[in-house]
Amino acid sequence: MKRYMILPLLCLAAATLTACNDWLREDAPGTTKLSDFFTGGETCRQAVVASYVPLMWEYNGTYFSEWFIGDVMSDDALKGGENTGDMANAYDLENFKTITTNDLLLQYYRAQYQGISRCNLAIQNIPAVLPDDTMDERLKERYLGEVYFLRAYYYFRLVRAFGDVPMPMVPLTSSNEWRQPRSPKSVIYGQILSDLKNAEAMLWKKSESPAEETGIATKGAAQAMLMKVNLYLKDYDEAHKWGTALMQQADEEGEYTLCNNYNDNFTLEGENGPESIFEIQYMEDPTSDFGEGYGFTRGTFTPILIRSRSSKLGAGWGFNKPTQNLYDEFEAGDPRRDWTIINPSDEQIETPEQEIYLGCRYLNRKYALMTSDDNSTWYQLTHQSRGPINNKQIRFADALLMYAEACLGSGLDLDKGKKALNRVRSRVGLGEADLNENSLRHERRVELAMEGHRWFDLCRWGIAKQTMDAYKATETPEARAEMSEFVEGKHELLPIPAEEVRLGNLTQNPGY
Fold it and tell me: Which domains, ranges and CATH numbers included, belong to the chain?
């Protein structure tokens, strides 16, 4: 990725001069203008690549992986760590004690706007670039499709977590433009849908993407997101329309299918496989991030964050611990339970006071990079805090369940919706289920457990309060003692970070 900077014009005046001449007003040597940068296809490619990068970010003074929201705030996971004081920001999220100065939320919020800023820059400048020997018109269109998709994705992450947020649509080049008001979430969702429709029309199919560009946004990814966003808006007819388009790509054109083995989704060998619709790309990186912040590493922190604190089970930091409530949700004989949750033996737990968190001993297995079924062999990380495994944001099983939900909600193609639901179940050897609200919600929970979906599903279904209250009653006395009461109408959204409220003169979400 090429980094560049727009430097101010310099007016150099000697003591003997009374005014600046024309030659003194010329750009100083080394000044780079945007018009100098966006000169050809290669620089367009660099701008697009840079737009993906903030998706990878998980650290800037504190860790802010999205699963701290999607898993830990839900009934699927407890924070974990050495004790309740380990990562106080995550403890507050877990227990609905979040305050506006939570640094985890500040860093997550800012990372999304870094991505949006890069997308805005690319969207503004790529159209004027003429094709050359590195970019024809079709590739230029795909580049624009990618950044439209990414801008929609960043705004989607923001709006579902924070509600109304500022929505700059062009690069902000003046301090006079920095204070942007919060846009209503209905307006933001409208823009997300517009960007995704642009992307869907411009992007290539997964099979058309060159091997060296595996992992870029595709037409199928845009269709999946159009289905997902419309489910959030409860526009089931539109969700069904886009789901049907995606299913056609999968079933008639062979673009997507389920992996034969469920667990292949969470191995290095399974990256960008037949089930992958969109995933965040990570790679081996032996460098250290500490003190460096955003974008310093190309590896993911998730494996070390979620591995056991025991050296016998990966020697990690023990965060994002599956709950007993989640463990009990799996049906008898469902193999996904043991590919999601590790239940360590007493012999494997070296320091119970650090490894058993508020009565919970379970470990998250999916992205821990374990390489054996008996929990004895772990992938050796190149750097102690860095892992190469990609994070699957959308996989075909998720799309099948969204399609089933769209069919049920719209009343269209109910037989196809039922087949989609049971296709996910049959992959793991489970019997047929009827298509109804309960079966769908159960299946999404167990199929996608510990992948960061659960909290957002509860909120979009409007059942966060009743679910979290019921879950609380099932927890250990130690865990219940830490939990605050869930306040309906407040806790479904997170607070706008106080520093952003101050800098932007923004309003705050109700109750914070």
Answer: 226-279+392-474 (1.25.40.390), 282-389 (no CATH)
